[in-house]
Fold this protein.
Amino acid sequence: MGTLRVILAISVIIAHSSALFGFNFVGGSLAVESFYIISGFYMSLILNEKYIGEKGSYMLFISNRFLRLYPVYWIVLLLTIPMIILFGGSIYDNYALYFHQMNFTTFAYLTFSNLMIFFQDAVMFLGLNTDTGSLFFTSDFRLHDPQLYKFLFIPQAWTLGIELLFYIVAPFIVRRGLKVILIIISASLLLRLILIRQGLDYDPWSYRFFPTELVFFLLGNISYRIYTKIRSISISPWLLNAAILFILGFTIFFNNIPLHKKTPVYLICFFILLPFIFRKTKNSKFDNYIGELSYPIYISHLFVLFLLTTFKVPIIGGLGLTLTISTIIFSIILNELVAKKIEVLRQRRVKMKYNSVQLAGLKSP
């Protein structure tokens, strides 16, 4: 699924820049929700097949997920902050203008959120009272000035805040029976319907509210269950290839397809075909390597955009193309120097946990 993940990451780049050869792909919000489905699939896979038995420690799972996200995030953050201090920008201007209008709790919240990712999604539901310096709840962040998300150094990382919430609850959910999963999906959809009936059918309620986004993670869980049923049966390779080409084509040409209600159709096709795509690509070293770049691409592209605009790098073939190529190059470097080394550590920790339990079992009377 690596190529698909990178295409989705590029969809987010395009949403923040310009079309790529005239194509906008699926757009930012749909790409994010597709990532949630993939995340639900992968977490279901590893929690049911990797973090089991002697290796089934909750803390091992959580800490390994943190190791997957935080080192790359912190590197990008450490690069972003001095660049903003040296060369300015809207984030610098916002802090310079409103710093003295924040109380300690507000500043501590923004500092913690920027450092630890948690609650970055919540900034879309909060505003800053410039008279008292405190935060307040708002149903529409666009109606207030300043908008709190403008104080995030890596603003797209709000999706990671939602991912982290899912990681925390996933071990208690994804191993449950199908009936429980369907009940939670129904509750999530019902809540979304209630919010829509209350007029809350816009950003951030439409795709930044964890309880209603949980449905996408759990669609990934159902995809995993489909995979367990089809992984050992004979399927023609051309059917698996057709599934890959269909989803890639649907993703790339999404805005050019004259289809009514495209978004739900895309999501349904996505979660149904995901098990077949995974079966076809899971043993591909090339596809797996490409997939390793998806997270660095996603988390670094706005930093790369800042570099391009700050240093007035020539734009060739449009901003979308220049930003995509530049981000991929930067992500390869980030992956080789940081992510790969962390991955070795993560896998070693799982083996060490297993070996320590085995050793303890041998020593016990």
Remarks:
- The chain has one domain: 2-88+159-351.
- Residues 31 and 57 are 31 Å apart (CA to CA).
- Residues 2-88+159-351 form one domain.
- Residues 357-364 have pLDDT under 50 and may be disordered.
